[in-house]
Specification:
Blueprint lengths: L2 E2 L3 E5 L5 H8 L2 H4 L7 H18 L3 E6 L5 E10 L4 E8 L8 H16 L4 E6 L4 H10 L2 E8 L2 E9 H9 L1
Antiparallel strand pairs: 1-2, 2-3, 3-4, 4-5, 6-8, 7-8
Helix pairs in contact: 1-3, 4-5
């Protein structure tokens, strides 16, 4: 599956993305809010993602620059069995922050999710101090659903309901 937007190409993460994923998830600005992944951990994560694609038909995706093809970050949909929810997530190389690319990628994933999955809502788990991601979630129409804990970190689970998505798609 490939999703194209005005500026981006989204495609499933592949093992060949390991160096780019490690560069992203070892960047101190990114790891303030997301897990640190060394090469071995990234390879395990990429293998898990490939299994998710087979099992669910969706998963995490590389965000590529549409013009140059360079790796910008990751996005996608992730099913979390412990919550029985599907999350829209995004993480970009800080060099690309402030350009609306996370919003563009997140919107494309949410649109795909609501068009193809029978879910009443999509979530996004965001640490309360991650102001940039909270702003992206708000731009996408997500609103706070509940406080929770994910892998030892306090998060606010934001949700975008199918009804809110349909209303925004019609306007």
């Amino acid at each position: 599956m490939v999703i194209e937007t005005a500026r981006l190409v989204l495609r499933p993460l592949q093992v060949e993305d390991v160096d780019d994923l490690v560069a992203l998830q070892t960047n101190p600005e990114v790891t303030r809010f997301l897990s640190f992944l060394d090469r071995e951990q990234a390879l395990v994560r990429l293998e898990e993602e490939q299994r998710d694609w087979v099992k669910f038909g969706y998963g995490l995706m590389a965000i590529l620059d549409r013009e140059g093809g360079g790796f910008i970050g990751r996005t996608g949909l992730k099913y979390w069995a412990e919550f029985d929810e599907t999350e829209v997530g995004w993480a970009l190389d800080p060099r690309y922050w402030g350009r609306g690319l996370a919003t563009e990628a997140g919107r494309a994933c949410a649109d795909w999710g609501f068009r193809n999955l029978k879910v009443p809502y999509l979530t996004s788990m965001i640490r309360p101090d991650n102001d940039r991601s909270v702003a992206v979630a708000r731009r996408l129409g997500f609103s706070p659903l509940r406080p929770d804990v994910f892998r030892g970190d306090e998060v606010i689970v934001h949700a975008l309901t199918r009804g809110a998505w349909e209303a925004s798609a019609q306007s």
